[in-house]
Amino acid sequence: MNIYVSNLSFNVQDEDLKGFFEEYGEVSSAKVITDKFTGRSRGFGFVEMSDDAAAQKAIQELDGATVEGRAIKVSEAKPREQRPSNGGGGAPRRNFGGGGGGGNRW
Predict the structure, then answer these.
(1) Which end of the chain, N or C, is less packed with Cβ atoms under 10 Å?
(2) Do 3 and 55 contact (CB within 8 A), yes or no?
């Protein structure tokens, strides 16, 4: 089961996150998400646990727990929504052509 953890202190590292969940069962992976430009924590992460029952117990007991002075939010991770791959945002391009002439004038 994949677990979403938010409102993390910016000091929490992958190993810390893993440690929070290990007392509930085996942790397959734990990753604090970082900003790709600065490398700083973005304040949330994901934990993967192979045992769904242990994961549910961890979610129930850790949701709202205080870690480094912050009440963390813990829930089952939702599947990532597909994003359109149209090369970026912005308004669609529309070609309205050039300005019209006044027609033939005699």
Answers:
(1) C
(2) yes
